[in-house]
Amino acid sequence: MEKRLLFFCLLLLSCYLGWGQSSELKNIQASLPKIKDSLRYVDALNRMATLLYEKNADSTFYYTRMARDIAERHHYERGKADAMNNLGIFFDIKGNFQLALKYYNEGYTGYKKMVDSVNSVQALMNIAMVYQEMGKDDKAIQRYDQAFRQARQLRTDSIRSLVIYNYLLSYPARFSRDSTRYYINVAKQIAAKYKDKRTLVAIDQLIADDLISHGKRAEGLALLEQTIATAIDQKLYYVSMDMHIDIAQQLEKTDPEKSVAYYSQALAIAEHNDYLFYSEILTRKLFEFYDTRGDHAMAGNYSKKLIDIHDKEAKLNNQSGIDYIDYALKDEQVKALEGRYMYQVALTILSCIAFLLAVFMIISIRKHLRRSKQQNNQMKEALSALEQSQADNTRMLRIVAHDLRNPMGGIYSVTSMMLEETDRPEEDQIMLDLIKTSSQHSLELVDNLLQLQFSSEELNKEPVDIAEMLRYCVSLLNSKAAAKEQQLSLEVIPAVVAASREKLWRVISNLIANAIKFSPSGTRINVKMMQKEHDIRIVVKDEGIGIPPEMSEKIFDLFTEAKRPGTAGEQPFGMGLAISKQIVEAHKGRIWFENNEARGTTFIVDLPFS
């Protein structure tokens, strides 16, 4: 029942707040023949449709359909949006939730285009309540949250009281006790500001339910009784329906006689005002009560009333002559035809454009075909020249690097000998140490440059004992690891691979040296060798600083920017891994890395083995 009250309380808002329904309806009906302006006429029809749904839903449909037709002829967007909203009301009353959602959503889209924030919030609330009626609570809460946020940003806050009220009544568990009290107070202040009697009465019902649910049953029931009396006194009969059902349900177990009295009072009001929807619900409640008690005479009376109500509903539906489902289907068919027509027009235009473009392209292709042949010849010549230039540059680079090696080696040797002399001043020793370090780095750079740009055909392959090579590399680099208090461990198996001994040694040396360079003191570096089905796998695992994701795609690039100093400030050149990759791929192998789960990196090399 609460869902229906939420829905009906909201719908009375329409475009403007106003609750004097009977007098307002009479005034509109009287003024309708005098309205000459088509847009004002549409607004009047839509307002009448909104006010009539309690008495006769078919009248709501009739006036809404008329308003929509006129609004579409005059391209009156607001009139169309209001009509869509009223169609949503109509189909919701009829219990067709899918069509109700369709028209509510079209109304919401129209309001959004017009930047009508108030009615957009209202439409969102309508959609939320339909989803709630369908049992789709996730979607209902999503729309309520959206309406709740937007209502706070409105300059005119009249709609906010209804958003708060409906959300609290629909999903009280979404709010803490303090939040519930706060929002009830906010809604009450807004309703009082706009003299909104219906919402004020409805909020009192909300307060009563809150008291009952938090242990103040007597106080809550008293307030609920007072709220019902206020609603009847103000002739808010439709609003009082759900309040009667609310209190009757609260009293069913504790005071069944009083519960039946409220059901009976509500039924009398519903019958007097011709509320067939509530008449059926209340009659069923009373039938179930007397049937459970075994009072078959009274149960039979209410059973007969139920049959009379169903007969009356069927008679009204037959008399109305409105096939509203057929209307919705035709509405969709008209839209589909309009869309198909626009599609065909667009397709014709596009076909003409495509034909002209095809003619133009054929002419252009014929013109450019000759040019492309000439350009291809020129590109071949340029590519040949570029390849020759690259080969010359590579050869020159190797010559320069080779010639630089001897003087750099001499500088390194001389400075090493000078540093061994004990009587040199400390300042000289610092300068000599800097020269030695720089010459050492230069030698490493020269060695790297000499390794660049080679192919598999240039490799001088021979049988290489991989286990022996790994032992040699580890023994050479043990002192370097010991200087950083690191421990090198090695696991090998017997295996011989056809490879370039010098090139492969450089790969292994690079990987182990990098592990030492980028690992902190006191860590362990594991070098392991294993045999796969067709490969020999070499694994170098460290506990270092790892490789961040943003550098992972660049570390194997030549002259990469993904360079970092070692944990002890070691100088990076950024070419070692690129050279290693060239060497491994020249051996028809594969090299890659994986970041360890805890810390550090594992580099893996697979070499073909037979």
From TrEMBL:
One Pfam assignment: HisKA
Catalysed reactions listed for this entry: ATP + protein L-histidine = ADP + protein N-phospho-L-histidine
Origin superkingdom: Bacteria
SMART domains per UniProt: HATPase_c, HisKA, TPR
Annotated ranges, domain Histidine kinase: 399-610
Species of origin: Flavobacterium gossypii
Enzyme category, top tier: transferase
Ranges occupied by TPR repeats: 121-154
GO MF, one example: kinase activity
Name of the protein this chain belongs to: histidine kinase
